[in-house]
Specification:
Number of helices: 2
Structural class: mainly alpha
Number of domains: 2
Distance between the termini: 54 Å
Helix content: over 70%
Radius of gyration: 27 Å
Number of strands: 0
Order of helices and strands: HH
């Protein structure tokens, strides 16, 4: 009876150790995926910013609509920033 208990305990400890290793691998893979997603999002944001700057640079400096376009763009950026801040909370 004691031998059976010790064998079951030993098996349970081995299973627990295997599960712990599997969970550690999962956490590491998850962290790597998060880092990769963040790098991708940063790259996409930089590309969008470059496109916007390029488009804004093409506007006629004397154009009366330039101010309205810049104001609308600034408002849209602010709304996007505020919305993304609420999602991460």
């Amino acid at each position: 009876m004691l031998a059976q208990y010790e064998a079951a305990l030993s098996q349970a400890e081995a299973t627990l150790a295997e599960d712990g290793l599997a969970f550690d691998r999962f956490l590491k893979e998850s962290d790597e995926k998060v880092q990769q997603a963040m790098r991708k999002a940063d790259a996409e944001m930089r590309l969008k910013q470059e496109k916007v700057c390029s488009l804004l640079g093409r506007l006629d400096l004397a154009s009366p609509s330039r101010g309205r376009i810049l104001a609308a763009f600034t408002a849209a950026c602010l709304q996007t920033h505020l919305a993304s801040g609420r999602k991460s909370m």
